[in-house]
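note to self: dont lose this again. the chain is below, predicted strucutre after it. 279 aa total, dont forget to put it in the shared folder this time
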Amino acid sequence: MTAINQTLSLQTVEGSHERDSARINDSGIERVPDSIVIERALEISVEIDDSDTYPLGVTMRTPGSDTELVLGFLLSEGIIQNIHDVKGLSVGDDKGVVSLAQSSTFDPDVHSRMSTISSSCGVCGRISVDGMLNNPDSAICDDLKINLDTVNACIISMKQHQTLFKFTGGSHATASFTPEGDLERIYEDIGRHNSMDKLVGSYLSDCNLPITDRIVVVSGRASFDLVQKALVAGFPIMVSIGAPSTMAIDMANEHGLTLACFAKSRSISVFSGTSRIEI
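---
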């Protein structure tokens, strides 16, 4: 093979870094820079009474919107129910420290993690998932209805706004849409559960929970932890580009969430809550 040394300019976006690579094919080797999604650890801990500090674990994430990530994570874990359960929050140097109010429901025996939360697993390290199963306790709104036109509009719009994915091919996205299919908010991260936490945390920070009149769309598969996070936030409809898991389907059915997967142009597979889909 023939080595070809070539210097190219590379445009990077927030959440990515440039790394050297060697592209090898039948014509030889081409040395080019590539845009790679950032993966970095974020340590999350909570303080009680401004004295006792408890580590919740380490999550592997793409830096950016860390405040929203921490808030969404605490909500989905059942540690807080609203923004008033948080007295203070500081994020910096890859650490997030939350001062909890007395109204929070933090239990170190339940909420402490035993290991790192990887970018591919949102529940790894938990001692038990029992608390997560009990979190969604509010009734899901039945008023929201959508059709295939809405789903199609959501898919097209989300793909157009996945900037980090366009440059790196290595990020997941979670987005919220109006009933008409208009994009409201979108977050990207190397971890699909992180992108969901960032989205939900942004609504929590604005005191806009529960989210009863919006559709949540995820760019990958519908896993149990994503369904649980969507339920805690109050979303009545969740659309996934990829496949669901058995636990995701069972939880969606148990709590009345519409779960539509394998979403593509003019086609979806609905595994629960078909009454919200108009034909």
